[in-house]
Here is the input.
Amino acid sequence: MLYAGDDWAEDNHDVALVDEAGRRLARARLSEGVAGIARFHELIAEHDAGGEGPARVVVGIETDRGPWVTALAASGYQVYAINPMSVARYRDRHSTSGAKSDAGDAWLLADLVRTDAARHRPVAGDSPAAEGIKVLARAHQRLIWERNRSVLRLRSTLREYLPAALAAFADLAAPDTLELLARAPDPRAAARLSKAQITAALKRAGRRRVQRRAEDITAALRAPQLSQPAELTAAYAAAVISLTKVIAAFSEQIGMLEQQVDASFAATPPPGSTRASPAWERCSPPGYWVSSAMTRTGMPAPGAARTTPRLPRSPGRRGKRTAVMARYARNDRLADAIHRWAFASLRASPSARGYYDQLRGRGKTHSASLRQLGNRLVGILHGCLKPAPATTSTPPGAITPRCPSQPPPDPVPGDRLPRLDSPRSWDVLI
Here is the structure.
């Protein structure tokens, strides 16, 4: 086995090569592009005495995308995308000085995949269609996050000089809200908005109960407010107008990307399955495999905590002491997809709603309940798509995910939670 570490940059790659015993064999700085990847193949061939080929070469790199990673995976190398935070923690094992260099990081990555490759997840070679969906889905999600940041900036600005707008408009990203704020960005102009203008904006946005909402907005905007200097109000108004235009542009592009994501998903069959499979149609929520495929290279392997050595308690020392037991690489994209899936299931499934209500009744917050519901849905889906072997033992009281075709398990005494793995509850996953 050969182990290679690749510290990548925009223009070049620092590559280091070690053997199974950790002996340093070679290092080189390769250029980005065809010439660099060709030189990488030559470097591997020079030290592959047994002629085992690319399948016996493990490569560690701090990214999971790009032409270089695609070329390595297509050539047959075992490529591991290592989280940069994990590399930083691993660096502390070898040196406490904090010194860092590109060549040193290449040696570090090579040694990391030599000793701890089993604790990381290899880069999966997706099809071009799946890679295209991943690019679209990430761009769509990134625009949503950027729009949310702009909405928070708009809210903070309005709170400084026009708090009546926050009382009048519940959704600052709505088209009618953006139209009215752009037309009346200061307190005087907002108070002069007529009920007819507000009603027309609400109708263009497709709102319901237009007359009632128009009356509420008019009353909120005309409520007495603290006055501020005209120069300061004008500056705030200009900032609000620019933010409304930015948010409107984000919303437009988000809608366009949604259409492209839907079209790409409809034209691409799920991996390892066919659209005619009843089990897939019952077990998979729309778009889940897209979210899973676009983020699985960044998910930690089961039980693979990014750990640092436990700090022992000093003999004779008393009092509290903070010790870092484990660090997990959180995948924000996958967490966001699961959170939205759990939220949507509250309306689609009575059993999911009942499970959520049970969690809230136990004193859990809304976010914690959604997170636990999402984790349960993922567990059921994994059990459906990849059933556990018959030899796997189940701890007492545990809920084993099963496919709809499998018989429901016997009830567990004392388990008061609704059993989401029963046939009546699979509407959660449709």
User: Anything to note?
Assistant: The chain is about 50% helix and 5% strand. The CA atoms of residues 176 and 204 lie 7 Å apart. The mean pLDDT is 75.
